[in-house]
Amino acid sequence: MSASQYIDLDRYPIDRAGPDRDAVIARARAALAEDGCAVLKGFLTGAGIAALTAEAESVADKGHHSHSRTNAYFTRDDPSLPEDDPRRQFFDRSNAFIPADNFVPEGPLRQVHDYPGFDRFIQDCLQEEKFYRYADPLADVIVNMAEEGNGFPWHFDTNNFTVTLAIQNAEEGGAFEYAPGIREGDENFAEVAKVLNGTSERVTVLHLEPGDLQLFRGRYSLHRVAPLKGARPRYVAIFSYVEEPGMVGSVERTEQLYGRTLPVHHERAGQRADAYID
């Protein structure tokens, strides 16, 4: 099978210009303008869902499982800060990521990612002039794998633009929760603290279904995945885009998420497109 059978091109004609494509882009832009998040329901066909699920299961043993306590910025504790500072609020994290180098070019996940027009469609939805694939060989396109009891606590993304594709849901739990644009322009520690202590009124709860494509500005919106229940694992593919070419993850964060680093992570350490602390 090919990517043209995995993507519902009748509903989402990403590879051809015309009023139907324009209408899809307009809806996505409106949602992104409202709160930094757009969901394209049923982006994958049933065959696409089945193929990506099978591929994820075939490499599930390659996932890096980690259990730790992290803050929203993936930084170490700083005792010089007040105890209630959000940088000093740490939460249990139990999750797994299947690194990008486990997905072969001819596999369904990369076929979807490499389908003609996919990147340009995402760029047009985001309306970003500076738009590049994440150059990290462990993280440009990955699968997040979560099992019962797992989740991902509140955090900000390193990448400016994150595109996720729901593949398989757990039996219960796993809702996506986010505080839109909470640090657009500055760190906004006071509002971040409210989210962390459960007093914020800015949190949106989103339930994604297999086959849904999500565009999300996670660099600026604090977000988490609620804990899961049941025996069935949750699989979500993550496609990452950034504002500058050649960007890769930091050494510390790459080690945390994938359990290993490559020479490129050390060679490009400290190269960022902005001044945020993570």
Helix/strand/pairing category: alpha+beta
Total count of domains? 1
CATH-assigned fold name:
Jelly Rolls
Beta-strand content bin: 15-25%
| Fourth-level CATH superfamily | q2cbj1_9rhob like domain
Distance between the termini: 40 Å
Helical residues, percent:
25-40%
CATH class equals: Mainly Beta
Overall outline: globular
* Low confidence ranges: none
SSE arrangement, N to C: HHEHEEHHEEEEEEHEEEEEHH
Kindly report the average pLDDT value.
91
* CATH architectural category: Sandwich
Compute the CA-based radius of gyration: 18 Å
Family: Belongs to the iron/ascorbate-dependent oxidoreductase family.
Protein name: Fe2OG dioxygenase domain-containing protein
Biased composition (Basic and acidic residues): 75-84
GO molecular function: metal ion binding; oxidoreductase activity
Describe the model.
The protein is α+β, with helices and mostly antiparallel strands and 278 residues long. It has a single domain (3-267), classed as q2cbj1_9rhob like domain (Jelly Rolls), CATH 2.60.120.620. Helix content is 25%, strand content 24%. It has helices at residues 3-6, 19-35, 46-58, 108-113, 118-126, 189-196, 251-258, 263-267, and strands spanning 37-40, 64-70, 91-98, 132-133, 141-146, 152-155, 161-168, 172-173, 176-179, 204-206, 213-216, 222-225, 228-229, 234-242. Strands 1, 2, 3, 4, 5, 7, 11 and 14 form an 8-stranded antiparallel beta sheet that branches. It has a 4-stranded antiparallel beta sheet with strand order 6-12-9-10, covered by helices on one side. A two-stranded antiparallel sheet has the order 8-13. Helix 2 (19-35) packs across helix 5 (118-126). The N and C termini lie far apart (40 Å).
